[in-house]
């Protein structure tokens, strides 16, 4: 039976369900190529280091999807139904679209739990969703980015302010502090296709810094993949070394490319970058992640509503 509601496909990276699921997950990330035993052991080690092998992204994505449903219900009662689709784990993006089709949904909007667009990130999520939607005769529209949404900026600004206050208190009034905004690195070849990823990340960083009154900041990359091709740099660990050499005693970490706590934040920042900061004699304070902050939920809901009003009404 046709369903007059608009389906909202909320997409996120996905994480294994348990330690047993790591091989399947990693093989999917590597487009069907199984990881070597060394790669597998290395990834297992990182998950084990993060709270003994739990996978917080699973619950975080569930909570954000529920939060978005509530925000949409508050904005436009009865108009939207949220479905989940994950890039590298179940329910996969295609499963989410199939669930909509099974419910008779005829019109859908896709949105990714990542504010910045890259052909290799949001673009590839949307391509998979669109292909499946076409196959199942569902009209599909996409929210490609929301990196400058005023509510997103407000939520990030308040996080930067709190982390700065904590850092200032720990390091002392007279010490210079450096804010490091960061996001997941991507292969350098994204520059060949005029990918907007870098420009959008810089735009978010500079607006948040301006609003929070932070003048001493830099953008740096993190979490580069373990492949042979060159990835965008400098990496946060290199940048921190330079910052320490310049005499700083305090660093604020703002991983603005991510929206919840998961491996790339809990390991790469909270374990790896923290250890490096200690060795370099610096205090590092990370901003809280957005999670289900009502301002973030409203950013998502508003972005969905804008696209759906433009396309479906
Ligand atoms: O907590 C978790 O279980 C999942 C954490 C996680 C997030 C995440 C986000 C992004 N990734 C992006 C791009 C790439 C590219 C490759 C790649 C590889 C990995 C591996 C793991 C992993 N990623 Fe990820 N990513 C997360 C986890 N990612 C694990 C495999 C081991 C490794 O290299 O560390 C390279 C693929 C290849 O081999 O060809 C490219 C981008 C994002 C941020 C946007 C988004 O969320 O989609 C971009 C979270």
Structural notes for this entry:
The chain has 313 residues and is α/β, with parallel strands linked by helices. The chain folds into two domains: 3-147 and 293-311, Rossmann fold (3-Layer(aba) Sandwich); 150-286, Rossmann fold (3-Layer(aba) Sandwich). It has helices at residues 22-29, 37-49, 56-75, 93-102, 122-135, 150-171, 197-212, 236-245, 263-266, 268-279, 294-312; strands at 3-12, 80-86, 105-112, 139-142, 177-184, 217-222, 250-254, 283-286. The protein has a four-stranded parallel beta sheet with strand order 2-1-3-4, sandwiched between helices. β3, α5 and β4 form a beta-alpha-beta unit. α4 runs parallel beside α5 (122-135) and α8 runs parallel beside α10. The structure holds ligand FEC. Ligand FEC is lined by residues 13, 15, 26, 29-30, 43, 55, 57, 114, 120-121, 184, 186, 225-227, 257, 262-264.
């Amino acid at each position: 039976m046709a369903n007059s509601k608009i389906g909202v496909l909320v997409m996120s990276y996905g994480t294994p369900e348990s330690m047993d699921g790591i091989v399947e997950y990693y093989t999917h990330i590597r487009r069907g190529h199984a990881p070597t035993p060394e790669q597998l052991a290395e990834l297992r080690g990182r998950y084990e280091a993060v709270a003994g092998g739990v996978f917080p992204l699973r619950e975080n994505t569930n909570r954000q999807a529920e939060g978005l449903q509530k925000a949409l219900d508050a904005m436009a009662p009865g108009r939207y139904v949220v479905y989940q689709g994950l890039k590298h784990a179940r329910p996969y993006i295609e499963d989410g679209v199939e669930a909509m089709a099974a419910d008779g949904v005829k019109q859908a909007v896709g949105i990714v739990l990542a504010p910045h667009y890259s052909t290799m990130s949001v673009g590839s999520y949307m391509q998979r969703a669109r292909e499946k939607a076409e196959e199942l005769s569902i009209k599909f529209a996409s929210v490609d980015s929301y990196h400058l949404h005023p509510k997103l900026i407000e939520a990030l600004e308040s996080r930067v302010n709190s982390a700065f206050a904590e850092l200032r208190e720990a390091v002392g009034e007279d010490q210079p502090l450096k804010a490091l905004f960061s996001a997941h690195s991507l292969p350098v070849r994204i520059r060949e296709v005029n990918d907007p990823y870098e420009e959008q990340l810089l735009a978010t960083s500079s607006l948040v810094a301006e609003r929070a009154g932070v003048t001493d900041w830099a953008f740096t990359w993190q979490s580069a993949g373990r492949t042979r091709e060159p990835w965008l740099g400098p990496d946060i660990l290199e940048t921190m070394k330079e910052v320490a050499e310049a005499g700083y005693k305090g660093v604020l970490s703002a991983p603005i490319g991510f929206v919840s706590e998961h491996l790339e934040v809990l390991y790469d920042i909270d374990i790896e970058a923290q250890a490096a900061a200690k060795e370099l004699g610096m205090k590092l304070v990370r901003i809280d992640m957005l999670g289900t902050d009502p301002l973030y939920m409203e950013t998502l809901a508003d972005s969905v509503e804008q696209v759906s009003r433009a396309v479906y009404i």
